[in-house]
Amino acid sequence: MAANLEKLVEELSKLSVLEAADLVKLLEEKWGVSAAAPVAAVAVAGGAAAAAEPVEEKTEFDVVIKDAGPKKIETIKVIRQLTSLGLGEAKTLAETAGGKVLSAVGKDAAMDAKKKLEEAGAVVEVA
Fold first, then answer.
1. pLDDT < 50 stretches in the chain
2. Which of 37, 64, 75, 82 is deepest in the core (most CB within 10 A)?
3. Which residues, other chains included, contact 43 with Cβ-Cβ below 8 Å and sequence gap of 6+?
4. Among residues 13, 85, 8, which one has the least CA distance to residue 49?
5. What global pTM score does this model have?
């Protein structure tokens, strides 16, 4: 019996990640179990399913103002520098908690904007 298990482990170790995922689906259908049990069994048996799909790194960020802070005029000036908004629109944005100053920008631009707004006294979140 142990020799058969060793052969099974050897064969499972040769599976690619996609083949292991297909195996999980087949076992799930055959045995009527959730995906958690077959994945754990395959990982223990040969480690074939241990390499999970990589998590996609976020590339677009929103800069959201939570509070203009005590120096609202400075915050408004920074908002105007970062955007093409007029004075009235920038003031409204500064006074609106949860307002997006920048939308779908790169990480560097989002962090730069956050730094500038925080230096002006605003409370900012990058989402």
1. 37-43, 48-50
2. 75
3. 49, 50
4. 13
5. 0.54
